[in-house]
Amino acid sequence: MMSTGCVVRILNGKSVSILALMAGAGLFAGVGVAQAPAPFTAGQAEAGRAAYATNCMSCHQANLSGEGDALPLAGKTFAAAWGKRTTADLYNTIRNSMPYGRPGSLDAKTYASLVAFILQANGAKPGATEFSPATAVTISTVASGQVPADIQRGVRPAPAAAAQTARGGGNTDFGGPPPNADNGAGMIRSFGQTVVGDIKNYQPVTDAMLTNPPEGDWLVGRGNYANWSYSTLKQIDSGNVHDLQLQWVWAMNEGGANETAPLVHNGIMFLGNTYNTIQALDAKTGELLWENRVGPGPSRPNYGGMRSIAVWGDKVYFAGNDAVLHALDARTGKTVWSTPLSEVPGHNNTSGVLAVHGKIITGLTGCGRIPAKDHCYISAYDAQTGKQVWKFVTVALTGQPNGHSWGGLPDDKRAGAETWIQGAFDPALNLTYWGTAQAKPWRRDLRGSGSGATDYANSTVALDADTGKLKWFYNHAPGESLDLDEVFERILVDHDNTKTVMTIGKAGILWKLDRNTGKFIDSRETVYQNVMASQNPVTGEPIYRKTILDQKVDQWLSSCPGPEGGHDWPAASYHQPTDALIIPLSQSCVMMLGNGSQTYFEMPGTERNMGRLSAYRTSALKPLWTFQQRSPFLTGVLSTAGDLAFVGDYDRRFRAVNAKTGKTLWSVRLGTTVQGYPITFRMDGKQYIAVTTGLGGGSPEDKPMTMLQSVHRPNNGQALYVFALPDGK
Amino acid sequence: MPLLVAAWAHPAAAAPGSYETVLGPTPINHTTKTELTGEGAAIAILSGNTLKISGAFQGMSGAATDAHVMMGEGIGIPGNPILDLTASTAANGSIDGSFRLTRAQVAALRAGRLYIQVNSQAGPAPGGNLWGWLLPEHVKAGQDEPQLGDWFLPQGEGLRAARNGNKS
Question: Is the ipTM reported for this complex over the cut 0.85?
């Protein structure tokens, strides 16, 4: 176990003598007695309050209580984490890491005012001395963690942000452009339809087309209902891919999290942008056919990916980050109907949507607040009217099957189990398969669920597509405690008469289940993991390492992988000709403390490589090939019958590898991080490859930003790139 | 890949009892990432119960002060110093040492529980500046070079072996 001294070192992040810390602890023990005036002025704190409302509040909440990855900035938890540290440490931490996704983008005066306000929000009294970055006062000597009443009631948004909220409409908690997310050109400042389309001879998309997509189209987010991200197109192959050339490029909205998956139907590309913007483009030329900036903007800076959209009939469907489902006319782009998925503030959507038999199925996120006003659910809507058809709550409530798995917690303390990745669908079984995230709070000792499995969190759930009724579920991480989601793509693969569903979560364990019954078939570790110590040979249930089970709030705990995940949202591809699952993997570990503090380190045995791309034969989970590199991969994988697999990375490289060997055959550097889901399509006999660059997102973006200081990339440049072979090749 | 790491990345054919590590920064966050810099590599040869370690490091933001063999609960799980290495007192330098291990220490080495930690002025003990777990010497491919078939994973067959009642 890590020694106490080591805890001290990491808490402080630099050299501090034990004696000094003991002195600090002694001072901290004096909380409650009159405290000295703090080294900031009332004017600074007031300026900091406004800066907080503009830059921080959307994540850390109006009362600084924090939520999810955004840690509390006031109260007991903050005092426990920061009481022994200095005001200079706080300044440096904020300056080096915030605002999220744009560290260092504010001026020194603003960062200083934010420190002043945070100190005030923890009970510090302003004095006559201005705070400066060099001011190093132990925080516990000036701030007790006692939150003033006005701040407990909540900071008010800055007037400009409030006005934008009103303009954006919708859920008041998610209206308008992200506060101060203005980092240059390309930001959306107005909403509504900018270009009305007039697409002639549009062919409605049928159920038959979605079940067996035409070879030249890309009609489902991951290519088909089985989520293969595989195409039978083979004009571009391992012999000619080195001739690929850029055909056209389309700049996309800046801001938000660009993790999009375009669709193509009959030569028309439907493209989801940030700010809940949908565009139709001529897939051959890149000409804009229509654009609807439905809005609002993302609730938080650099947040709010839209990971899939859908087409069915004569409409295009998407779920906004504000948890509103929209149907647009595919010919004109006009809004046909809009239906709120939830009325609960804080709920949002990043999974995107799946069109199945005239229904639009979607997930829900942001269900971590306690008491839980409403739980997360997967729900289906009539594609013609937007009326809800069914709803499946992803938390097992009291009296429901496995409702006992929450250790007796009342229902309003059962939170989490979000669905932030699009599910799969098996037309023959009429089942839709979705992954769920972990229970919240994700630390089991804070959650209060004891050793309970917290079903149906971190599970695969199989639902009747017509009714939403649960057929079976399988919990991949019962009682999860390390922020290791098992929410990602479900890929359907058949082996003779065995129909399987495969998935891989943040722990990096590749799972194979019988998708008719949910029974465990096999599993295999893909990257190093020290989270699970053993596994039930029959059920596959993993058993956590003992020190994880014995986790204490005040102890640092190591986890490999860490929250970046051995696998995350960049989805695997099933290359059918070789029965290979080609998986983007990441290699990093974490030390975490009960209050949410985290520090990251390179995974042992990886030679300092965070990125890994590996292929496994799915029949026996046999390793086929792998390669690793310094930067992680941040796109899904696209594989084709041309024996190719395409993938992009944090360091701006988009490449094609031989799907049989992993050998890189072609690569190109793009404008910024290659992020999203590459696709392929055919127009007038020519095959195209499309991929997006993007910024924003959660751990898969944040952890490399911390650990890859030698890798530089622009903080703008979200775009769509389309490649093809030169004419005549 | 930096020169120093590359030099260690293609070892000669693995000998019985050969271990290696690539050193990287101890845990960092946005605040400490500019302080805890550097990298390195080391090899360790176990002959009988004698362990000889030699390696190098570079690029630390402060001079090395001391270095140790540490023992933790498992691979990637930090612990405490058990043996003292000789280290150059510089930002770039070498480490080495020769030790007679106890039976428990040999078992810990074989289980991947031993790691090297270099402390520096920028990253003093107990947290340190660089660390790397001593793992069996293994084949590695260079950047952009895929490996076919099985590849090195520190835990071997891990859960599969446990599930099947075998030791990995």
Answer: yes
